[in-house]
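Sync notes, pocket subgroup
Present: LS, DG
LS reminded everyone that the earlier model was apo-only. Rerun requested with N-acetyl-beta-D-glucopyranosylamine included. Inputs:
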Amino acid sequence: MTSDDLRDSILHHLKYSLGKDADHAMIYDWRMALSLAVRDRITDPWFAATRKAYDDKHKRVYYLSMEFLIGRLLQDAIVNLGLLDTAQATFADIGVPLEHVIADEPDAALGNGGLGRLAACFIESLSSLSVPAMGYGIRYEHGLFRQSFHEGRQMEAPEDWLTQTHAWEFERPEAAFDIGFGGQVTEKGGRSVWEPADGLIAQAYDTPIIGWQGRWANTLRLWSAKPRKIFDLDRFNSGDYIAASAPETLARTISRVLYPDDTTPQGKELRLKQEFFFTAASLRDVLRRFDSEYNDLRQLPDKVAIQLNDTHPAIAGPELVRLLHDERGMDMDEAIVTARGCLAYTNHTLLPEALERWPVDLMTSLLPRHMQIIERIDAQHAAQKPDRKANAVEDGEVKMGELAFIMGHKVNGVSALHTELMKQTVFAELHRLHPDRIVNQTNGVTPRRWLLGANPRLSHLITDTIGDGWVGDLERLSGLEEHLDDAGFLDRYAAAKRANKTDLVDWMRSTHDIDLDPDAMFDVHIKRIHEYKRQHLNILEAIALWQEIRDDPNGDWTPRVKLFAGKAAPGYFFAKDIIHLINDVSVILNSDPVTSKYLKVVFLPNYNVTLAERLIPASDLSEQISTAGKEASGTGNMKFALNGAPTMGTLDGANVEIREHVGAENFFLFGMTAPEVDARRAIEDHAAKAIAADPRLARALDAVRGDVFSLGDAGRHAGIADNLSGHDYFCVCSDFSDYWRAQREADAVYADRAAWVQMAARNTARCGWFSSDRSMRGYLADIWHAVPALAAE
Ligand code: NBG
């Protein structure tokens, strides 16, 4: 496509789709017109892909996920279609900067964090690999809340990505299913029939996801809840206007909000309804598609692979059994086996509070037939494994992890360590009974978004050095290895990083009124705020460093900027206290005339995918400092390493594998291992001991407790100091000294800029394995037994 063609198409959409003329077009109009022009380019490969999947009778992969954290889509689509240069030329001609057009798109935050972003990377990789696949989720009206700060405290406001037309989706009024809730089960002619008391309509909205080089596109199908009856005219006519629209309001609540928590299930009943709503609609859609191609349900596992992204869609087990047995007449035992042949489950956390359990009473009242089937599945499993000690229904609760395990033919963890810990802890008993069921699939990230799109400077350098094959085959980055001693290459590598940092400095100045030194080390900690992720360990180290610089202001300090970003779940008060502390510390440190040239702390509000794309390419050091055993994998850690920010990290999640790949000497390791953490925790006064042994830590905690950062509000941060010097479940104190040591090591390397650049470049060269294309190939081979539809190029 030439720049003239693109321009014609944009002008066509401006006029005929948006009703604007070019002289009066606003940035929104240009963005919509460009998006529609780009979408047109996706539609043909999308149709062709759908046709080919049918014609060749491919097995399809269905990825069921409550979250798809897709962020903006325009740049991704342009990059994957190879239209970036063309679009740049077109907009130069039009006289509007392309960056402004791209930046106008709302960031679709239909997820909380890693789990949702992983789903988005996977769906893009499946398209890039030309695997016939479909993502199924919920079209939330309001994604994750918008975060701002008021006097350092987190404020939450509803997010409104859908107030403007979403350029990428196609509404599918014809793809709609009636989803029931409640009611009762009756026996009719020896069969159980569920008669729901009420229900609503799940209606599909499709977004095509184009793969690398535009060869293949899959569909992200998101369900929106609509009432069966839009409006109660009788009530309206009798003057009761509010009651007249009650059915719509009630139905819409189901797809209204994303639960703002990735660890604790809230609003139990509504959440369970959401889970059933999207799972049931997706399964019916899968069966409808299967029916249109095949007529023997026993073939289902050969043609359909359904991945359950965490336990949120785990009701798929009983629902699929119900559809096969109650509605299609398949024998119950055969239905269970057939469903299991299709289903597989990914576990994303070992945190006990995040493992979903539903009260039997709630399950029975909301999904009475499913409760019966769950009991039947559990009984069948007990009969097959008479010595088992792990039940799906126990103590008045349905345990969704156990249910998903029993109903999946494979269960996977998301990093080597996490998978091992799954076998030893949460699923130890089920693993004993089914030793072949648990497999590992280490997470990955799409290089199209996280390197090519987000970091054009480094991408150009890589392509100049080894050609452009790396974008579709990230392991080719190893070709950089032979340039790692080449001064010319390293200079260009350093220049790319430096330019990215300068861009960030400019942006921070204009949007946040903060001045940063681009030569300082940009030390970045961005992710959800959680005690196990230990943002408080990082800020304590900052406080200790500040105190030390004040003691010796003429010392040889390596200048640092500590950047934080991340949201705390609204009900997680301790996490919100951590944000408050970091913000208050930044007020004191940044205004300190003596120390602020060496150390600044900045907490950027409203972390999202777009902000990550801005920060990661400009980062020097990646903070991955979770308490060992708690972070299932991490994926931010991979994005940083790939973009040349070495890791400061514990032996946790995928950090372990990153360190193996980049080499121990290119990774700043500190802290206890997972077994050491367990042992330390068993010592009752472990925190007090650690504090007594490290005067720096003691002094930093004293400052927190002693109101140095309380801005006149005595006792403001005492809660954090008390928590850390008391229970300290996440072992912040016990890991502090070693963290301090590793940080000073990082300072020393950074001071020798040539050594640092080489370490950064080694990280890039050795992280090719962390592509989500590699993850997807692993799932295809070990779990889905499906293949790409096109030959690799
Ligand atoms: C998160 C883990 C991360 C992991 C992502 C993706 C949940 C429940 N889990 O460590 O905390 O990288 O999943 O697997 O959000």
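DG: Residues 113-115, 118, 262, 310, 348-349, 354, 414, 443, 631-635, 653 surround N-acetyl-beta-D-glucopyranosylamine (CB under 6 Å).
LS: The first strand starts at residue 60 and ends at 64.
Action: DG to write up.
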